[in-house]
Amino acid sequence: MPALPASRSGIHSMGSLAAAGIPPSCVRRLVETGELVRLRRGWYAQPTAESDAMSAVRAGGLLSGGRRLARAGGWVAPRA
Q1: CA atoms within 13 A on the CB side of 39
Q2: Calpha distance 35→17 (Å, rounded)
Q3: What is the pLDDT of residues 38-65, one digit of tens each?
Q4: 54-62 contacts: CB < 8 A, separation 24 or more?
Q5: What is the spatial distance between Cα 65 and Cα 4, in angstroms, rounded to a whole number?
């Protein structure tokens, strides 16, 4: 089975998995063995993925703005 593509957040779209040569049958097997977690249709995460990123994808979105900047190592003003 091909290796999972690199992902900073540990989250993969079905498209990125297919581009890495991982067919749907392998994705199903990875979910069954716990190597991937299904977040919603077409989106999967490694069990070690960031919980706030997984929550965002489950809700139909992605991390953006300050949270994404902070994850990338950028400076974000402290919250009051």
Answers
A1: 25
A2: 13
A3: 999 999 999 999 888 899 899 998 776 6
A4: 54/11, 57/11
A5: 26
